[in-house]
Amino acid sequence: MVFATAFAIACNTTNETNTTAATDTVRASTETALADSSLLNGNWQLLPDTINVAGKFIATIQFDVAKKTFGGSTGCNRMSGNFTLKGDTLKFDNRMVTTKMACTGYDESMFIQNMLSTNHYIIRNNELFMMNYDKVALRWVRK
To answer: What's the rounded Cα separation, in Å, for the pair 143 and 137?
Structure first.
């Protein structure tokens, strides 16, 4: 009986150790990927299922991580500005500059609001998820 109890405790400890090690490995690889901000560099195109946009309005963004600047298109107007980045934290400066063309049939203000609400990001399978806590604010694909 003592042997069976000792064996059960030993097996349970081994399983907990293996589970903890596997979880730590996944967590470490995720944190490494997120901490590599160079993955954010380059051109991205908004996937239209993120927000309700008419087909002809295709938003794009280009990040320069070294300069902490971005540029691109809201889908109608040109945009540029600055951002802060630390680990997976991503925040856009609300002093974004845009041109002011009329965008009939497109809610550009919703797009800009979603950008400004971003507080972190995830990059997975060549897709960029701009997140507002646990909600996807905007979803992009590498261009």
So the answer is: 19
Q: How far apart are CA 62 and CA 43, in angstroms?
A: 4
Q: How far apart are CA 17 and CA 3, in angstroms?
A: 21
Q: What is the pTM of this model?
A: 0.72
Q: Which two tokens stand for residue 57?
A: 């309005």
Check residue 52 and give its pLDDT. Answer: 58
Q: E-strand spans in the chain?
A: 42-46, 60-64, 69-73, 78-86, 89-92, 97-98, 120-124, 127-132, 135-142
Could you report the per-residue pLDDT of 29-57, keeping only the tens digit for each? 444 444 578 999 999 999 977 665 556 78
Eight-class DSSP state of 76: S
